[in-house]
Each structure stands twice: as structure tokens, then as C-alpha cells.
Amino acid sequence: MKLLHIYTLILLATFGQAAVEPGFEDLLNGDNAAYWKQCGPGKMALSGGETLNSSSSEVGVAWFTKREFADFVLKVEFRGAADEFNSGVRLRLPKLGNDPALANQLGYEVAIHHTAKRYKWETGSIHGVKASTSQALKPLDWNAYEITVTGQEYSVMLNGRLVNRFTGNRALSGYIGLEQNPTGPVKFRNLRIRDLTSPAASLSAAPLASIQTDASQPRIEVIKDQGPNATEWALTPLDEAIPADIRQNLTFLREDLLDEGKKAAKASPEAYKLASEYCDKILTALDQRDLARVNAGYAAAQADANKATSTQALDARRNYQMSWPQYAREESQRAALRENESGKADVKKQRLKVEWMQRAVQMRTYLDELYRQLREAMR
User: Fold this and answer.
1) Which tens digits make up the pLDDT trace of 157-180?
2) Is 190 left (phi over 0), alpha (psi -120 to 50) or beta?
3) Which of 64, 66, 180, 356 is most deeply packed, by most CB within 10 A?
4) Strand-strand pairing, 153-158 and 161-167
């Protein structure tokens, strides 16, 4: 029995609580467990590093009172504790006291949601701000969030897939919180955070990786796991940035796939052929996106506006004999022309962004089908 008990402890340590990565701080274990405070109705029951967040009436928030965070990477695992559930990870909260309404007004919520009824703010959404771009939730299993916050830039990874990116306009620092919602309870575990503003972090911190990989993992498995993530980057809206290394990573991955397929294949030749084609198409999408960005760039649009506002007739009549009222009147005309042309430039940018999104929808359909064929070939 004693030996069985030891094995049980090993299994719990292995599968229940993940090891905390270097540079991360565990917020649910050790001394940090005492720093959680309840705001509003509901409760968070914390035991052995795992929580149960629930409410029988209205929304409440448990928040980590030890300190505020500015720029950070936050990782957490969660799962629903009922058939339907609703919760969220709260970011950059103010000091809440006992008023959970402040959390909605001044912080952001990365949503967790699963109900039979269709809902706009599904898991991965920034509640009330931006819906998730795709769904990767496993309703009956543990799920993993990785949330990166730098300045006003927010990125949300769900189970290894990029599901949201947006630019905020609220506070640049605040507290971390976990929501309780009457719709249904949610469990959390392995909540850890890496402070990107500390001196140690500043030396090694990097932006959200475009392709997260393990050097020992077969390349065919990498493209299976990270392909949807790369697709999301390639089809990102024109006015949002993407990692500078994604093209290089995909190019290397494509070449590694060719070598692996010839020397140490882990799947069928058809799977490697599809994987290589998948990389090619994502790289093509990145090229098309770069071209669209050039056409819709802020600098190019502004240059168009400047060229269109030469107003030669007004310039020719401006001289030292021009009266002040006349000069002021024509300056007003000039300003109106500049505003009109700038407006045209903004319309041009918006039109090109809309055109890109329409093309992205078409490319997504093709890439998703290619990915489906790849997964089928690997079965």
C-alpha cells in the first residue's frame, strides 16, 4: 500500500500539475495561494493547485492581489465542470474592492464559454471587444491558454492555435483575475505567469513565436500541430503585425520535411507531399499579404494624399501682395482639399483591407481543406 501511495503521488505530480517553466511564477501554489481575494458574488475553491470557480447568482471575480503585471505571458489550463460552462481570465484589472463591475469597465476578459446556444463571445474571444477567429475548445477535456500581453498588443493561443489578436486602449498594467459565472462552473490549474518587464525577462523575452516547436518532434507532427496557427498568421488583417520570423520558420520546416520524408519518414509519402504543399500555400498567402500591405500602407496612402493636394492654382496666386483675409480664405480652401484627399486615402485603405479579408476567406477555405487532407493522410 505504501508503494501504491508513492506511485499515486508521482502520477498526480506528472499529470495533475505541470512543472513551472524557468522564468514563470505559479500563482495557485505555495505562498501565492493566500493572495487570492473574492470580489462580488460567487466563490473560488482552491485545493492542491486546482480551483473550482462557480456562482449561483451573478458574475464574480477572484483576483490575485499580490502585485500588478504590465507586460507578461500567462499560461493556464481550464475545463468545464458541467455540461455548460462560462468563465474567463481577467487581465490588467484595477483594485476591485467588492465591485466586479470595475473588472468589465477597466480590464479585459479572455472568454471561456460552452453552451448549447450560439454565443458571439466564444472561448478565445476578448469579451465585448473582439470575437475569436477560430474555435479550438475541447469541451470535455482540459484546455490550455497562452496569453501574451505587451504594451497594448494582446495575443491568445488556445490549445496551440492562435485564436485572437487585438490592440487595446486600456490600462497598461493591472491585476490578474479568474471569473465565476452562474452559467456553469469552471476548473483552473497550472496558472503561471512570466513578467516580461523584469530585468531577467528583458534579456530573454521574445515575442509570441510564430511556430512553437520541439527540436526532437518529427517535422510532420510539427506541421500537423502548428499548421492552423501558421494559417492564422498568414491571413491576419493587414493593419495587424505578425512575427518577423514566420516566413523563415516555414521555409526551414518545408526543407526539413523533404529531408525527413526521404531519410526517416514518420508517415506516408502522400502525407509528406501534402505537408510540403501546405507550407508552400501558406508562404504564398504571406507573399500576397505583404503585397496587399504595400498597396494599403499608411505611408503610400499619405503620399497619394500629398500628391493630390498640390493645389497649383492657389500656390500660383500666393504672393506678398495677397491680403490677410484672402490668404486666410485660401488656406481654409487648402485645408478642405487636404482633408478631402486624406479622406479618399483612408477610403482606399479600407477598401484594400476589405478586399484582403475577402481573399483571406477564399484562401482559408483552400488551406483548411488541404490541412484536412493532410490529417487524413496521417491517420
Assistant:
1) 999 888 999 888 888 999 999 999
2) left
3) 180
4) antiparallel
